[in-house]
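SEQUENCE AND FOLD
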Amino acid sequence: MLKMQGVFKYYISKYRREYILRDIDLEVQKGEFVTVMGPSGAGKSTLLYLLGMLESIDDGEYLYKDIPIHSFNDKKRTEIHKHEIGFVFQQYHLIDELTVYENIEIPLLYKKVKSPERKSLVCDILDKFNIVAKKDLFPNQLSGGQQQLVGICRAIIGKPDLLLADEPTGNLNSEQGLEIMEVLKKMNQHGTTIIQVTHSREKAAFGNRIVNLLDGMIQADQ
């Protein structure tokens, strides 16, 4: 499903290249549940952003479903983001002007899900994560953990082909965190390919493969 060969990511600082990722070779098959681990600054989040086509690679090649991503125009990338990829961000990226309900509903609008089904799906997921009482609130009225729950609901409600999750349980209590991981595991069992970044060995155990990054390079892949 995803294949990187010799991928580099860097920025220019005082006329020299500062590498974030170096010579990344990574292949992810459809239906895998991959965990990316490593210390802070290892390049984990950057790798996730590259895989999700939110940032561009500086060298090497990245194939998405066997197609080189450099062949995608902006319209094609937008369509993929709307219909195929779900994101869970560390910074939540909720839309401030929309309520909890409206934020969660966005992927279903992109997929042109009809109103009655849309309402049913949003109500079900609000109920599942015990945030029905928050549905008419705006992001700035929520705690960090509540915003994270809303971000996760938005990412998974459309049943994406690929879910990219950056520390998906980072601001949740242990019970909520395990509940979310069980949901992700069930999604994976139903065919969603998942790549998560986490520092937690416990959360990594929900997947079937661990990729370890250090100083922007893959140190182990097992």
Remarks:
- The longest helix spans residues 174-189.
- The helical segments are 44-51, 74-83, 100-110, 115-128, 144-156, 174-189, 201-204.
